[in-house]
Amino acid sequence: MYTTIRFEIEDQVAIVTLNRPDKLNAFTEEMNKEITKAFKDIATNDEIRAVLLTGAGRAFSAGEDLASVKGDKPVNHGQFLRKRYNPMILAIRNLEKPVVAAVNGVAAGAGCSLALACDFRIASDQASFIEAFIHIGLIPDSGSCYFLPRLVGVAKAMELAVLGDKITAEKAYELGLVNRVVEAGKLDEEAFRFAKRLAEMPTRAIGLIKRTMDRALHSRTLEEALEYEAYAQEIAGKTRDHQEGVKAFFEKRKPRFEGK
Ligand code: T3D
Prior knowledge:
By secondary structure, the chain is α/β, with parallel strands linked by helices. It has two domains: 5-199, 2-enoyl-CoA Hydratase, Chain A, domain 1; 203-250, Lyase 2-enoyl-coa Hydratase, Chain  A, domain 2 (Orthogonal Bundle). It has helices spanning 29-44, 77-93, 110-117, 144-152, 154-163, 169-175, 187-199, 203-217, 222-237, 240-250, and strands at residues 5-10, 13-18, 50-55, 59-61, 99-103, 106-108, 120-124, 128-130, 167-168, 180-182. A six-stranded mixed β-sheet has the order 1-2-3-5-7-10, with helices on both faces. It has a four-stranded mixed β-sheet with strand order 4-6-8-9. Helix 1 links the parallel strand 2 (13-18) and strand 3. The radius of gyration is 19 Å and the shape is globular. The site of ligand T3D has 23 residues, from helix 2 and strand 6. Keywords: Isomerase. GO terms for molecular function: isomerase activity. It comes from Caldalkalibacillus thermarum (strain TA2.A1). InterPro entries: ClpP/crotonase-like_dom_sf, Enoyl-CoA_hyd/isom_CS, Enoyl-CoA_hydra/iso, Enoyl-CoA_hydra_C. This is Enoyl-CoA hydratase/isomerase.
């Protein structure tokens, strides 16, 4: 049913693969729509407890397919983003399930933003990141102006956004942009292992951590953040996984979490 992505489910992990390898997985409108739809479907599918997002071929994604903006016809870039990219990024951030990006190659422009919108990034040692927008006279979009300063601080974020230099996976790790760097040949296995580990955890609590941390980043006061933690903890405290965790602790055994 999808034409620009692949969608599989394995061991409660949804594997979403950007699948235009001959175009370095550059985005088309269809691809934006399919990614958004996939994440919305994942939200309502109880069988899925974690997501792995990766690219087919040598790139993660080269960002917008520039073939679609090269003509003489003027493009309203604001509408372009509101219609195609913003819903895709929001679908990932609003998903209360952990999302792992397995960054297999270059992540450029909105491809970089897409990786940054995920909760975790595991990069191949062949991967690279480039806020390529400036080279075509644009500003980082699809959330990059939001995620970058939060991940690396304002000074480094400005440097990456304004100079638009390509950085290696190793450099991205040093900056705190990625969680792990692994050998290219081991990326699929390592990233899947990581996502599967998450899928076996109390995923309802992980979803609440995601929401509570996102809120805390723009809480105006500590009081506000503490209150939201209390609200979210009330929800976590009512889950079967919390009961199971405490029970397993006293029975000195490994807990069996269900994500409920
Ligand atoms: O309003 C709006 O437009 C809002 C939306 C914006 C979202 C955005 O993402 S804007 C940013 C768009 N992306 C870029 O500007 C990146 C452009 N590409 C590059 O900088 C480089 O190609 C890469 C760093 C991604 C990869 O470099 P490299 O050396 O590994 O490969 P290459 O040789 O440059 O590219 C290989 C081919 O892919 C080449 O085609 P060819 O010569 O073999 O026929 C190249 O033209 C093509 N390609 C790469 N990126 C794109 C692309 N074709 C269309 N769109 C691309 N984004």
